[in-house]
Design brief:
Layout: H1 3-16, E1 21-26, E2 32-38, E3 41-48, E4 51-56, E5 69-71, H2 74-86, H3 93-96
Antiparallel strand pairs: 1-2, 2-3, 3-4, 4-5
Length: about 120
């Protein structure tokens, strides 16, 4: 592992705590894939060249549909992921059991009317 990967793993352990399981894969392109597991929760952070995608508790079959949030630095991505785990905002979990978390950031779909609101 390169120094940058070691730094990413160390930073993830510092932020998520010693009980977190952190795995990292560095690809020949320079892309980094971090998977963090803590207290039954899973975070996937993937990035390259200043674009870092973050997803928390993705459902099976949703692995290749894009990330829930994007950031310009790994540090921002790690802090946002920790915030999502520490302060979950369930979205439809009561009725669908999906376990998805609603992003703390505004998304373009947030402003569109729901099916119940459209005439």
């Amino acid at each position: 592992m390169s120094d940058s990967v070691h730094d990413a793993v160390r930073t993830a352990h510092e932020l998520f705590g010693p009980v977190a399981e952190v795995s990292a894969t560095e690809f020949p392109s320079g892309a980094l894939d971090l998977v963090i597991r803590r207290s039954g929760r899973i975070v996937v952070i993937q990035g390259l060249n200043g674009v870092w995608g973050v997803s928390v508790d993705i459902s099976r079959g949703e692995e290749f549909t894009g990330h829930q949030q994007a950031f310009s630095s790994l540090d921002e991505a790690l802090h946002a992921a920790k915030n999502s785990i520490d302060n979950p905002k369930a979205s439809g979990a009561a009725d669908s059991g999906s376990g998805w978390l609603t992003s703390r950031l505004n998304e373009s779909t947030d402003s569109s009317p729901s099916a119940a609101e459209t005439p």
